[in-house]
Write a structure and sequence with these properties.
Elements lengths: L2 H4 L48 H6 L5 E4 L1 E2 L8 H4 L2 E2 L1 H13 L3 E2 L2 H10 L7 E7 L4 H13 L4 E4 L16 H9 L3 E4 L14 H17 L5 E3 L10 H6 L4 E3 L17 E2 L6 H11 L1
Parallel strand pairs: 1-5, 1-10, 2-3, 4-5, 5-6, 6-7, 8-9
Length: about 290
């Protein structure tokens, strides 16, 4: 799911082909009005005593829109047609965020989503989750100040092989910057060591792609890793027990159908395309969720 990452290992190669962005109509659901509403982003939610609901209950709840971003920078002449789908230009990103704010969207974080899906805990009006994959430096230098001005928080899925690296075409966030994002109330999640296809894990892959990255991110942030994003959005049911054993609470794919047995580990996101205007993004959110 990552153009910029591959510049570390293969110049000009593009690793986006497996990403899927087909929309799926959401199920409708009622919220439990007896549960206190979380009024604003980042309001602490005690999830320690929440019992996981049955899959049918979770699937019945209306899906919360979740956007997936990668690079936020201006296009270069060397960027290909496919690559541009994953690169949102800076002003367009700012305009997209302004559209969300002007439209009344409130960002939520994983604790709020977890409470809602399992207990029906009420959410702010027009909830949305913003997620950013792959550790790109522009997520700190461009995304962070843009979201701060709007009072928005986000989830950053970190690929640990990239931390602190400087590439020919892109730089990556340092440990200190990742910790700062976490300390400022954003959520850090795992996105494996080097973006290897989750469906192909076997043997030591579980240690290399899950255990070591989890330990590193927990050392950086001082917080337990509970969220995981599948590379390319690709997942299989056989691997979900491995995530559960390691204490992950939710896992995020892209736009395929959620698993009927483990919907918490197949939460849907849509990629915010670099070709989309704010209006197109608005329509895509409404049509996809």
């Amino acid at each position: 799911m990552k153009y910029s990452f591959l510049t570390l290992i293969s110049a000009g190669a593009i690793l986006f082909a497996s990403c899927q962005s087909k929309s799926q109509t959401a199920n409708s659901a009622d919220q439990d009005s007896t549960v206190k509403t979380v009024e604003k982003t980042g309001t602490p939610v005690d999830v320690s005593k929440i019992k996981v609901a049955d899959a049918k209950t979770i699937l019945a709840r209306k899906q919360v829109p979740i956007l997936c971003y990668h690079q936020v920078r201006n296009w270069r002449p060397t960027d290909g047609k496919v690559g541009k789908d994953y690169i949102v230009e800076i002003q367009n990103f700012k305009d997209q965020m302004k559209m969300l704010a002007d439209s009344g969207y409130h960002t939520i974080l994983p604790d709020q989503l977890y409470a809602y899906l399992n207990t029906g805990a009420a959410l702010p009006s027009k909830p949305i989750m913003l997620t950013f994959d792959d550790t790109d430096m522009d997520q700190f230098t461009v995304v962070r100040p843009t979201l701060q001005k709007l009072g928005y928080k986000a989830v950053y899925f970190i690929m640990t092989v990239s931390i602190g690296r400087k590439g020919k075409f892109v730089d990556y966030m340092t440990k200190e910057q990742i910790k700062q994002l976490s300390d400022e109330g954003n959520v850090i999640g795992s996105h494996t060591y080097d973006h290897k296809n989750f469906k192909k894990y076997a043997g030591k892959d579980w240690e290399e792609q899950l255990d070591k990255p989890t330990k590193k991110l927990e050392e950086i942030t001082g917080k337990k890793m509970t969220e995981f994003a599948y590379p390319f959005g690709l997942w299989n049911a056989e691997g979900i027990p491995e995530l559960k054993k390691r204490g992950f609470r939710m896992a995020y794919q892209l736009s395929t159908k959620r698993d009927e047995k483990d919907p918490l580990f197949t939460i849907r996101r849509i990629i915010a395309s670099g070709y989309w205007s704010p209006k197109t993004l608005s329509n895509s959110i409404k049509n996809s969720f």
